[in-house]
Amino acid sequence: MLQIAFIAHDRKKDEIVNFVTAYEDAFKDAKLYSTGTTGTRIMEKTSLQIHRFMSGPLGGDQQIGALVARDELDLIIFLRDPLMAQPHEPDIIALLRLCDVQGIPVATNIATAELLVKAMMRGDFAWRELVHKYKPE
C-alpha cells in the first residue's frame, strides 16, 4: 500500500482539492496523510480518509518530515506558492531536503503531480518496494 502526503499553501488549496478529487480513485487504496487544513478540505470534497497533522506553519511540515526521515512515505504532493513568502520556509526547505536524502518523489506543482500520479496508476512505484526490501538495516 502506497503512503502519500498532501500539502498545499493557502493559495494552492483549491488546486490540490480539485486535483485529488479528479484522481480520487487513484488514491483510494493508499494510506493518506496531510497537513491540517489541506486534509480537511480534501475530505470535505471526497470520500477519502486522511490522517491529518498540524497546520504547516504550526509544525505539520515537520511531522510529515518525520515520516520522510523514517522512509515511511512513497510520494508527496506539495503544491507550493512560489510567489508568496512563507513564515515557515526553513521547515519547507528541510522537508524537501529530506525527500532528496530518502529518494522520495515530491511534486511541487500541478504538472509534476499529474506525471507522478499517472506513473503511480501504471504501477511505476514498484521500485519503492525493492528499496525497502534490500535496504540495509
UniProtKB/TrEMBL annotation:
The keyword Nuclease does not apply. Keywords: Lyase. InterPro entries: Methylgl_synth, Methylglyoxal_synth_AS, MGS-like_dom, MGS-like_dom_sf. GO terms for biological process: methylglyoxal biosynthetic process. The active site is at D61. It comes from the Bacteria. Pfam families: MGS. Signal peptide: none annotated. Its EC number is 4.2.3.3. GO terms for cellular component: cytosol. Residues 1-137 form the MGS-like domain. Substrate binds at H9, K13, T35, G36, T37, T38, S55, G56, H88. The keyword Lyase applies. It catalyses: dihydroxyacetone phosphate = methylglyoxal + phosphate. SUPFAM superfamilies: Methylglyoxal synthase-like. Belongs to the methylglyoxal synthase family. Catalyzes the formation of methylglyoxal from dihydroxyacetone phosphate. This is Methylglyoxal synthase. It comes from Paenibacillus herberti. The lineage of its organism: Bacteria, Bacillati, Bacillota, Bacilli, Bacillales. The gene is mgsA.
